[in-house]
Amino acid sequence: MRTPSNRVLIIMPAWNEAEAISAVIKEIHAELPGVDVLVVDDGSGDNTAAVAGAAGASVLRLPYNLGVGGAMRLGYRYARDNGYDITIQVDADGQHDPRFVPELIAGLEHADLIIGARFAGVGAYQARGPRRWAMGMLGMVISRLARTKLTDTTSGLRCSNRKMIEYFADWYPVEYLGDTIETLVRAIRDGHTVRQVPVEMRPRQGGVPSHSPLKATVYLGRAFVILLLALIRR
């Protein structure tokens, strides 16, 4: 899928995703003909890069693991330097369904950055307990900043227009958790419009999740620290 006047790039940060990434890339090519795929291999210890290249993606490799923020910053610079108009950040484990990409792109008619929201009435994905409460609080605070309802501020499924690509190519935090909360807060404060589109989340298609329930709860606790820092930074 290529819009009549826009070049579209899927950016896929990947760390040790050799088991699932081939099927994910092939599904994207089947569902979205004309869309290019860039895999940023974030210092994987397996053969993620080779598998991704064989499946038809362009591949950039980081020499060591920087985290999602470092991988995405490189991806946005690639998109800017190669003239792409729209990017979509997609996980390499198959949890993000490419059939929702056209809806994300359509949302750019009214915003600079569209979040694919898991808790907005589509699909059965749920988070429970402290993790869900923390995510709700984050959504409430950032919704007030954005002046719109945002239910899933930690979602890794995001769609950016050309203005946002250039913004993130010049500034994108590589610190832990900076790619989620801090990017939203700073983008909103700098006058960019953020909205969400409901999406369905799928189970992993392969590989091992990097977060256990306990780690996920710690992750979101730390997210509040990032939120506080983002709110007080100038």
TrEMBL record:
Residues 10-155 form the Glycosyltransferase 2-like domain. InterPro entries: Glyco_trans_2-like, Glycosyltransferase_2, Nucleotide-diphossugar_trans. Belongs to the glycosyltransferase 2 family. PANTHER family: RFBJ PROTEIN (PTHR48090:SF7), UNDECAPRENYL-PHOSPHATE 4-DEOXY-4-FORMAMIDO-L-ARABINOSE TRANSFERASE-RELATED (PTHR48090). This is Glycosyltransferase involved in cell wall biosynthesis.
